[in-house]
Amino acid sequence: MAQHNVMSSFWRGFRDALPFLLVLIPFALLFGVLATEAGLNIFETLAFSIVVIAGAAQFTALQLMSENAPAVVALVSALAVNMRMAMYSASMTPYLGSLPLWKRALVAYGLVDQSFALASAKFEASPEMPVNHRFWYFLGTVVPILPGWYIGTLVGALAGETIPSSMGLDFALPIAFVALISPMLRTPAHRGAALSASLLALGFAWLPFNFGLMVGGLGGMMVGAEIERRMGQ
Amino acid sequence: MIQNSDLWFVIIALGAGSFAMRFAFLGLIGDRPLPEWLLRHLRYTAVAILPALVAPLVVWPSATGGQTDPLRLAAAGAAFLVGYFFKSLIGAMIAGAVVLIAGGQVLG
């Protein structure tokens, strides 16, 4: 594909990411509201979202700090919640590893649940996609998501408690991820990975620091890889 | 009340730590070839980690204080079935939203 076509990959990523704004913005608003309630000023709240960009980890750190936990405890807990990002990074490496270092650094900054999920689905479904198109597709997904996160946080911080928690909005995030994952379950290995990961995550949900997520994720990856290996023989 | 110095320590260290995790493999491995067994595992990252992230949220929603909610299970189920059989992200999201909103109206 010619260089001038990379913009079509960018716009495809952009369009694919738009539905995720519906689930991202309520979360960002909520973070803004809770952070101001915990005593952060608007600059601090916005800096939190721009520097960290990780919803669950931000909520964890904020929650623990409001409970007067030591800063190191808040930090380690939030990092544990974010451990899946290392798995995302590893999973993107075969697709994007040949990019120049600064582009890989840019991808790393924008690597969040939504951009990872969209890029995984896309790259897997289009194995012939050239690496620069993959990069622009990824950037396209990031362009609505990150500003959505920043602006949502800012609006939440400015508006404070006046934002209503409308019915069922909390459930938009799970629905969006179910909708994204289910079309990816094309082979027995994919189905086995998803099913065992879900069951393990539920079974180990009692572990602290979201470790149940890591047990489920790693367990599911092992099941998927093993099914693939056996079926390939 | 959160101490100002603590807050900035957490923001900066959490930002640096999160970036380090996001950059770890992409940055350090780059285009060096990975062993086949590892690639085989990495192919299932998305379909393993994302379900592990979502399953507890579906079964024990935070909005109900962790109580399993038949309506939310039905909404997630509808999204799954449409996504699985019709391969449509938007269709699946709409199916889930319709079940959740319509069910919420009917059940009050």
How would you characterize the overall build of this protein?
The complex is a heterodimer of chains A (233) and B (108). Chain A has 233 residues and is mainly α. Chain A contains eleven helices and no strands. The mean pLDDT of chain A is 88. Chain B is an all-alpha fold. Chain B has five helices and no strands. Chain B has helices at residues 4-29, 36-42, 45-59, 70-86, 89-107. Chain B starts with a helix and ends with a helix. The model of chain B has no long low-confidence stretch (mean pLDDT 90). Chain B: InterPro entries: Brnchd-chn_aa_trnsp_AzlD. Chain B: The chain crosses the membrane at residues 7-29, 41-61, 73-102. Chain B: It holds the Pfam family AzlD. Chain B: It comes from Thalassococcus lentus. Chain B: This is AzlD domain-containing protein.
